[in-house]
């Protein structure tokens, strides 16, 4: 990109470009594959998946439904048919296994747009702009559910840019691109990472799933951390890193337990010291002998203060 | 420095906590109001937009439909589509416009079978029981049959010919010696498929399908139609009533039976 330093530079040097972008590439691959599966039907007449992210049918057999949408429907007063309930249970179980907000990082079509917006904002050196508190999305989630129960219709689905965008991609409807553009510009000039990081109630919902989900990122090798701060620079939710990475002194385990973590694994990519790995949430005991590494503790204290 | 005492501290944090809760509650309230009002507005379905078979009332449908489009995918005709942003129909929901492409009334009702949520009621197994809307001959001034011509196209294409649409013969006062064959819709048989509207030969259809609540009048609950009551009872409701002679137009003063 340029001669100046950028996050992950050390990792590129020590591991090579490919290894330092492994999870980013996997993630983009999964995002595009999901989209390709949905598009293969309408474009190539290969119907592996039919429907869209709110509800779909795989190979004409396995139903999938978005539990967040089905929950809205339930609160609006409609007990969905068995197909949708089974579909929602399958999807919910899957995200309990792989991590709640893995949806945001690996599946949601909006992620590509907000990541692009973030990339451009950094290149243009735009100010971060409006940064409402992170809990805002939880309150919006509450609003969405309250509105559904009071109005008796899925009110949020009239506005939800995520489902509108995916439907537009799969069904090729016209004006919906305005929604994608609106979110892109909002993230670019109004509030950097504002949509995914602060507002999206769908992300908040999957974040709640993430508080119990199995697969988590762990700063297992945190004593090797040299405080280069690259993981904080690339992380979409940097506040989730601190407790796990800096937990040596505070006696906090190395697993990133916060539901806000999207499991995007970009921290694994950019870390030259291989501090981060995918792990299970139960493997949260501090590795043996961790505290003995005095030199690292000092360096940790310096930045954590 | 000697910071504030614990009770002072907790009083401050309690105040801050309450302020935050109040702010959040206010925010939730405001946002819910905006979204709720928007939802109310979006519930008004335009008259020419018809829901697929098995859809309930508009508010029930908007609580149940997740806008996945599986009904659209399984519709074998170009009938169903999903509403785009900026249309008057709630975004992402399936609908059809009869004049563009009517429901072809498939026997196996694939759209209903495809629906994962039951927004299209799976208990609808006979397409003749569908209620997507009701055909109304809205313009007698342009309908060719009303002019005494034998167009009959709406009657001919009706999947429930002679049941949902019949031709009622009337005297043609213009010629004085011909008949008018008036297409007449029967609401108990019409499914609202829209084939009549689609095939109306006029540049703008004289017969159109509307959602039933727009197409149908309702008699006051207190109304009693004497002849119906009489038929149900099998005899006059008031026994011994004297049936006085009817005076017909043009009959002379003493036109007794």
Summarize the structure.
The complex is a heterodimer of chains A (305) and B (257). With 305 residues, chain A is mainly alpha-helical.
Describe the structure.
The complex is a heterodimer of chains A (305) and B (257). The longest helix of chain A is centred in the first third of the chain and has 23 residues, at 22-44. The two termini of chain A are 33 Å apart. A three-stranded antiparallel β-sheet of chain A has the order 1-2-3. Chain A has helices spanning 9-15, 22-44, 67-75, 82-98, 102-107, 110-123, 136-151, 161-171, 177-190, 194-199, 201-210, 230-234, 241-245, 247-250, 266-270, 294-304; strands spanning 49-52, 55-58, 62-65, 215-218, 277-280. Chain A contains 16 helices and five strands. Chain B is an alpha+beta fold and 257 residues long. Chain B has helices at residues 6-42, 58-64, 70-74, 110-114, 153-157, 195-199, 212-215, 226-233; strands at 49-50, 81-82, 94-97, 134-137, 165-172, 178-185, 207-210. In chain B, the strands form three sheets. In chain B, strands 1-3-2 form a three-stranded antiparallel β-sheet, with no helix packed on it. In chain B, strands 4-7 form a two-stranded antiparallel sheet. A two-stranded antiparallel sheet of chain B has the order 5-6.
Please describe the topology of this protein.
The complex is a heterodimer of chains A (305) and B (257).
Chain A: H1 9-15, H2 22-44, E1 49-52, E2 55-58, E3 62-65, H3 67-75, H4 82-98, H5 102-107, H6 110-123, H7 136-151, H8 161-171, H9 177-190, H10 194-199, H11 201-210, E4 215-218, H12 230-234, H13 241-245, H14 247-250, H15 266-270, E5 277-280, H16 294-304
Antiparallel strand pairs in A: 1-2, 2-3, 4-5
Helix pairs in contact in A: 3-7, 6-9, 7-11, 8-9
Chain B: H1 6-42, E1 49-50, H2 58-64, H3 70-74, E2 81-82, E3 94-97, H4 110-114, E4 134-137, H5 153-157, E5 165-172, E6 178-185, H6 195-199, E7 207-210, H7 212-215, H8 226-233
Antiparallel strand pairs in B: 1-3, 2-3, 4-7, 5-6
